[in-house]
Amino acid sequence: MAEQHVKIRRHREIRRAFRAAFPHTIPIFAGFWFLGLTYGIYMNVSGFSFIYPMLMSITIFAGSIEFVTVNLLLGAFNPLQAFAMALMINARHLFYGISMLEKYRGYGWRSFYLIFGMCDESFSINYTSIIPKDVDRGWFMFFVTALNHFYWFSGSTLGGIFGSLIHFDTEGLDFVMTAMFVVIFLEQWLKEKNHASSLLGLALSLICLIAFGADNFIIPAMLAILILLTMIRRPLEARISSSTDITKETEKGGGQP
What we know:
Blueprint: H1 2-45, H2 51-59, H3 63-74, H4 79-89, H5 92-99, H6 109-116, H7 120-128, H8 137-162, H9 175-191, H10 196-212, H11 218-231, H12 233-252
């Protein structure tokens, strides 16, 4: 009986985490599914069976490099070029990983999947979401990652299957993901009490954009942000902690500073 009660309680925790995670992924569904369809169609018209986008979306799960892989598969065999290309395109995930070391630690087999399935969108949700106290954090982050993975996988597979039958104008569709990241940034801005890190990120990105150009600024900008925020981490955390304490004291005092 005790084991049965434990299983029932565990199932309830999992269902509660799924219900909490799903609404956060709905905006991702809109972008992932249509871009996944586009990718599947692209693979289809390039002469590949739907098996290719299906397997690539479930094993690689990196949209940008999957599009590039189409040309790599059609070109001469060059594994070093493929490795360098993948490293350059997805180098930002190195910085994401550093930020998520503590958050993804201690969840058993789920930690391995969270690391594998971490994409821009899953990182943004899992890093910024305020998870309710009665929801298991490990299962919440797992379902965010799994749902986003499923959206991309299902869109890519369907695009590969029905690519020859679907014809629509995809011009401007790539802006969906840009718009989504703008919304995520604005939500994070509204949650922050201290905007120092966000303003530094914007300023350094703009400087690198001017210095290196639109095609080459991302990696220098990430390196600059990482180095500078690491250097000023302690004073920045102290400032944030101080402003939080002042806010709490103000609230305790009935709104009087």
